[in-house]
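Morning F.,

Quick status update on the modeling queue. The single chain you submitted on Monday has been processed. Sequence for confirmation:
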Amino acid sequence: MSNEADSDTSSTSSAQQTAFLRVPAEKVSRLMDIVGELGLSVSETINCSELQGLELDEFEKSAHRLKMIVREIQEISTELRQVEVGEVFRRMRRMIRELERQTNKKINLVLIGEDLEIDKVVVDRLYEPLVHIVRNSADHGLESTANRIAVGKPEVGTITLSATQVGGDINITIADDGGGLHRERILARARERGLFGATEEPPNDVLWKVIFQPGFSTAEAVTNLSGRGVGMDVLNNTIKELRGRIAIHSETGVGARVTLSIPLTLAFLDSLVMRVGNRLYATPIDVVSEIFQPLDSQITHISADDSSEVVKVRDCFIPICRLDEFYGEATQEKIPLISQIIVIFTTSQGQIGLPVDEIFDQQQVVMKPLPPSLGKIRASMGCALLGTGEVATVLDCEQLISGKT
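Structure tokens below.
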């Protein structure tokens, strides 16, 4: 009987082992590159100019079926490179123990959503940003044990790392139950650096952005934990490279929360492709709020020289960003907005309207980083290779609206 049980256990163990394969990440990345090229080749074939105007009913059916198969292959290959975000979350536990020793604070680390899967490339890049934020939460956010007890808080401070999926993004939130950001201290240091006027009182969402300025720090002295003013700058640059964005919320005496919104995958992008003049642009489809052709009554100028335009949509005034002006390519005569199409994008700072000349259909494009010679293009997350063989600039709408505020 024992031999039979041992045999069953051995068979079960063997079956579990054969259910998984160890594949180097480099091979999966190479597969995704090839799948991307396959998608481009299929699009080039289907959109071949020699086929235009021909009635090819069976070809259309086969082409549609082929596109669906390629789309499925792209999704499967993307899943192959996904790993649990808990892989990087759990690495924080050891650091928390070290921070407890260095700060003489009692810290409880709570992990939520560890089993959520995300692109391994993103996970590998997330570690350093999380280190900076968790370290700041422990050093600056959480009060000392004596101060926590004095204000009626538990003596053990809590830092929570959570992951949730929102559409095509994953939101990584780092929250603490400390004293929140020191508005007065941050504002004073910002004024010292000339970022705000002596009497200017910026709203919190504007003020918090200054902590990402290179070299910005409110620490009175440099320690092995903070004070150099480089951590948040590194965080900001890393998140930008990952096509993500950062949001900060703070409540005095209650705590602070930093949310990193990052695409689930960096290889493929569901996008809206647009034309402005002779240039092609693309934006992630999930930031598109609506598309319409405006009436003359919806357009308003809010400056004496007519340089600032807004469009009225359901009693809301949305700023307009003309790409030719944004990139310094504007001509003397402006194209009337009523002759263009307005695309409304939703960002963390509100909505912004983009006038375009033509809208193409939604496409899943292959993302490529910009070459070093083009790496400084403003408000760009990279370039997208289209099925026609053309290249579109992928716009970062967060930077577009920053240029208008």
